[in-house]
Write a structure and sequence with these properties.
The chain has 354 residues and is α/β, with parallel strands linked by helices. It has 15 helices and ten strands. The chain is globular, with a radius of gyration of 20 Å.
């Protein structure tokens, strides 16, 4: 009787020929990647689309950040780094802390005060990161981190680290590998704008390598209260329930706009109400629990379907960037309320209306 082996190889090993690594690179992995591409037939029928959900919340720390973090920390260790640092609205901090722990090095996290979801903060502190909360927003936190990196021997692992994007582009590879082709559209949330940039790079690399014969139109969605790329200017005090994309001056903004333009796509905004509606809809119709920022991709697809962007039967992939348990407070606040009843059979049956 054969026993099952360990989970599939690390993301770096699976896509080594497309990544800037060598035999000298120590691979720091938590078996990231290989996330499901889930067909969404009920939502697809409603929208007239061949709809798929890329479930990045099933990465080891619950978000897409692990794709880039495995490479950033591995390359940092190769270069002799003994500490990593990031500014974060949550997911980056959780991922950085986990991979630093795996590598046996120090992790420093700077977060904007009161702007991080409980699930993400819990991960960072449990993995042993040193977390500082600053009285300001994400962009101010990132400015501080950049200043520290300029003066001290600490490796920056935010998405301005080019290795982050190199790892994140593998999400595009996996979509093509699963579908056997590129989708017609790739819908993705946009915060600091690294992910849309990375996916566009990935699709083009696969095209040039002969792994697919087309690239998708890239459609990115910001929250209306944090939509600098839509407004054409930085947002000084960004606000949205989708904390992961509450960013007013994205580091990769120009590249994101180029990805949208070069692919004949777009970057648009969706309101918090549209985000929460999509967040609840995907959970109730497809059994998929994502964090609010993730639902911006589906909210955007619903909005653009109303506006006539798609043709009937287009293949559309929504990237759901993080798991719903990252932000339990939002789920509880927006979900059905728990009804209290006495521990009595008849009272329970009566309350249920059976």
């Amino acid at each position: 009787m054969s026993s099952s082996g360990p989970r599939d190889r690390s993301l770096i090993e699976r896509y080594r020929k497309f990544l800037p690594v060598s035999d000298a690179t120590p691979v720091i992995t938590l078996a990231e990647g290989s996330t499901p591409l889930l067909s969404a037939p009920r939502l697809g029928e409603r929208l007239g689309l061949n709809l798929f959900l890329k479930l990045e919340g099933l990465n080891p720390t619950g978000s897409f950040k692990d794709r880039g973090m495995t490479l950033a920390v591995s390359k940092g260790l190769e270069d002799g780094a003994r500490a990593v640092i990031c500014a974060s609205t949550g997911n980056t901090s959780a991922s950085a802390a986990a991979y630093a722990s795996r590598a046996g090095i120090r992790c420093i996290v700077i977060i904007p005060e009161g702007k991080i979801a409980a699930g993400k903060l819990a991960q960072a502190v449990t993995h042993g990161a040193q977390v500082l909360s600053v009285a300001g927003n994400f962009d101010q936190a990132l400015d501080i981190v950049r200043g520290i990196v300029e003066k001290y021997p600490v490796q920056l692992v935010n998405s301005i680290n080019p290795y982050r994007l190199e790892g994140q582009k593998t999400g595009a590879f996996e979509i093509v590998d699963s579908l056997g082709k590129a989708p017609d559209f790739l819908a993705i949330p946009v915060g600091n704008a690294g992910n849309i940039t990375a996916y566009w790079n990935g699709f083009n690399e696969y095209l040039n390598a002969g792994e697919c014969d087309s690239v998708p139109r890239m459609i990115g969605f910001q929250a209306a209260g944090a939509a600098p790329l839509v407004l054409g200017r930085p947002v000084k005090n960004p606000e949205t329930i989708a904390t992961a994309i509450r960013i007013g001056n994205p580091a990769r903004g120009d590249q994101a706009l180029a990805a949208a333009g070069d692919s004949r796509g777009l970057i648009d905004s969706v309101t918090d109400e549209e985000i929460i509606s999509a967040y609840k809809l995907v959970a109730s119709t497809e059994g998929t629990f994502c964090e609010p920022a993730s639902a911006a991709s589906l909210a955007g697809v619903i909005k653009k379907q109303r506006e006539g962007l798609f043709n009937e039967g287009d293949t559309v992939v929504c990237v759901l960037t993080g798991h719903g348990l990252k932000d339990p407070d939002t789920a509880i606040d927006n979900g059905a309320k728990v009804v209290r009843v006495d521990a009595d059979f008849d009272r329970v049956v009566d309350t249920l209306g059976l």
